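Data availability excerpt. The first of two example chains:
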Amino acid sequence: EAPGERIRVEGIVLDGTGAPVKDVLLEVWQADAAGIYPHPEDPRAAEAAPGFRGWGRVITDFDTGLWAFDTIKPGSVMGRNRRPMAPHVTFWIVARGLNIGLNTRMYFEDEDNSADPVLNLIEQAPRRETLLARKVKPGLYRFDIRLQGDGETVFLDI
């Protein structure tokens, strides 16, 4: 029932050698298409889209390492000091061999991300690109997560 562009996000979590990690749990949080989180800490939570939870979990396929989820493309949200943040999805990643959960964000390459305060904290453009999901075709985005090595995804200390 939630209004907005329906999308699918898929990817693989890769280790330092580029091999898929096949036993990963990804937890995702996001705002609805209007940029509202259905969470009590969002002052507009009562206005969130009907039926939209803004939270979910997905596990990787043990044979291929592929993970995917269907959702609504999130809208821009207000951050601290009323600074707008670009549409994004927040990930928490846990797997065997990881001592702590890893936090990261996924932004959309086809959105204007230039003013996002979190992305602008990342100094080098190639590092910023590790947080951008590629639009494969209408309604489908690809976001691979690299745990270490060349092209390592930026992880956030939150």
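And the second chain:
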Amino acid sequence: MKKNLIKTAGVFLLALLMATAINAQPNRQGNWGMANLDLSEDQSEQITQLRTEHYNTMKPLRAKMAEIKAKERTLLSEETVDLKAVDKAIDEQTDLLNQIRKLQVKHQLAVKDVLTDEQVMKLEQRQRHSARRGQARMGRGQGP
């Protein structure tokens, strides 16, 4: 009886610790740093809708990019490489990347339009901080 009580308490304690650890993890779902901007319900709904639309627009473009890259790898793995075909695949990737980047900027601006000036300021500060951390992790941005 006493062993069962100890086991139950141990399992409960373990579950509590796991739940606490999970909640303490930073949000890494790609939500562009929206976590602590104090969004209103309306803003949250608008941003969710924008993100869903953006995802649905980007998904086929990313699939197309993967297809073109696979085609390039196949062309480069052939015994006799057709340079014109490789160049065409590279040009297709460049055009598609240009299109993707323009859509990303359009999406970012649409999200910013939903935010207040104070929220935009917080978001930009967070992005600058994240960019600096990313550069430091990659060995860049370090002085002499």
